[in-house]
Amino acid sequence: MRTGWPAVLALVLTLVVAGCATAPPKKTLAERKAERAKAAAVAAAKPAAPPRVKSTGTPEDARKHMLRGMAAIEMAKSPEELAVAEEEFLAAADIAPRLGSAWFNLGKVQTQLGRYDDAIASYRQYLAIAPGAEDAQKVRDEIVKLEFRQEQTAREKGRAGSWVAATGAWYGLSMEGNGIVLKTDQRRVSEQEVNSTYTLVGTVPNLIRAHAEHHLTARGSRLAGTWSRGPVTADKCPIPPDTAEVAGEINEREKKITLRYEVTTFSASTQLALLGDDYCSGVAVTGKRGAEEVLYGPLGPAGLGPDVAYYGLISWWPGGLSSIQQDWQGHLVVRLDNETEAYEAGLRDEDEILAIDGVPVKSLNAGEAMMRLYGQPGTPVRLDILRKDVKAPITLTIQRIPNV
To answer: Where are the TPR repeats (predicted)?
Structure first.
């Protein structure tokens, strides 16, 4: 049986990309609601951590704990070993709460451990005991620095989550060490990047989606690092992986990341076989070209619910082969079953969202549209809907549904 590009294309036209490659077994609406209520009850009933047992002893014992803590700092080769020093200084402070050096050293160790809240509290305790100490101003300055670190750390952690490219690809952003990692399985490989031809057909529509990653470091708003794309197949031709240096910036106010890099370009040719399977007759590198990706995020934890998929985000627009949609074209159509909270809220399968909170979808790119659609659980989002067999648009206000 021949499995050339027409058969592959027919298969692709049955798919809707909604951020997941494989869907788990579907649960009923009642099951999802019960699970969410159970999780909320467990979280509310979670017992608090038991209070730390405070050390007791004499002033001489406090002095010993201080010396043990200093020795632990000298010996420490890991955060776990450094935590031993923290325990010793805590023991000294328990026994002698007015021992300023215990609080001072505790603050230093907690700073090294990255526990800025605790370090600030320890330094403030030191200043309360010794407000006129020679190093009091330096300690106050250190507190200001730690408060800034707190803000930056909170900002960096706040970047983690789902991001959507202007073209519609969904990315997951995670913080790994001091770096930012962006991953997707939906990066579109354009015809300019891989030009694929087929005997008797010529250049064919390129529907390739690839795994891609960005490994980045941030210096203020500037981003730098590497980009990589996994191997893909153009019709019958294997296209090797690609990698490049990447640079860009993050705009916190607009919640936007812009990345620029170079991709290797390829030409691939698939041969139509009269007998047997079609085969790849050649792959060649044709040069380099610049690429730019703009991503928006992170998305809020709630939207139209976890069981709603979308036409328009890396999918196709109904209307035949002539209207294949390679990327975002300003149309957003929902797909959902009756057994969903979105259906309960008034949405119907194949509703087209024309506007989100009064902003026309066609005026937005895919990332901007998703940013407006998602938000905090229970907050309202107003949708202007075009429904099948209904001439006039419908306005619907939905309380945002958690993504899980």
So the answer is: 100-133
